[in-house]
């Protein structure tokens, strides 16, 4: 039962996902690290991705989740997963249901967080298209990101008790 921390750009997926993984001693996967190079180039230029751009990326992420499940590992994955159809691809052929956490926030707050973030390829200009694309999940723990990362992680742990299949706290798992 792995965790998907989802939401638009700037909602805190990477920050909260990393902290959750650290607290639960689980491996952390940032879906951003698995985008195809042309997708990174597009987003860097302020061009939103299409369903087609995301298709192979989502299959790769599903593969990583299946690998982890087969190895008896839970992982924490930070992934935008904006549409229901994307979340279905992530869940495909997994025996256990993913624990989905939706990080929700006011547009002005997200915009200000993106404008303060440095060293990232994603421009704040794409926030509007991210919000337009977003399909709010029905089957998720929905949290407001006005809270601190620590508070958010506490709520996630309370809502979705861990299964206890912890692995190394840092470094690589061999998942490719
Ligand atoms: N709950 C929070 N409270 C305050 N700042 C946050 C919070 N979550 C994330 N941030 C900050 O907001 C920015 C965007 O967070 P990030 O984790 O990169 O979001 P995402 O991965 O969803 O794009 C970062 O600069 C991060 O430090
Ligand atoms: O599906 C997408 O359009 C992307 O995955 C996008 O949602 C994601 O936000 C970028 O990868 C930027 O990364 P950050 O979310 O870290 O800004």
TrEMBL record:
Pathway: Carbohydrate acid metabolism
EC number(s) on file: 2.7.1.12
First-level EC class: transferase
Entry superkingdom: Bacteria
Catalytic activity: D-gluconate + ATP = 6-phospho-D-gluconate + ADP + H(+)
UniProt cross-references to InterPro entries, sorted A to Z: P-loop_NTPase (IPR027417), Shikimate/glucono_kinase (IPR031322), Therm_gnt_kin (IPR006001)
Alphabetically ordered keywords of this record: ATP-binding, Kinase, Nucleotide-binding, Transferase
Pfam family, one: SKI
UniProt record similarity statement: Belongs to the gluconokinase GntK/GntV family.
Identification of the protein by name: Gluconokinase
Source organism of the structure: Rufibacter sediminis
Source lineage: Bacteria, Pseudomonadati, Bacteroidota, Cytophagia, Cytophagales
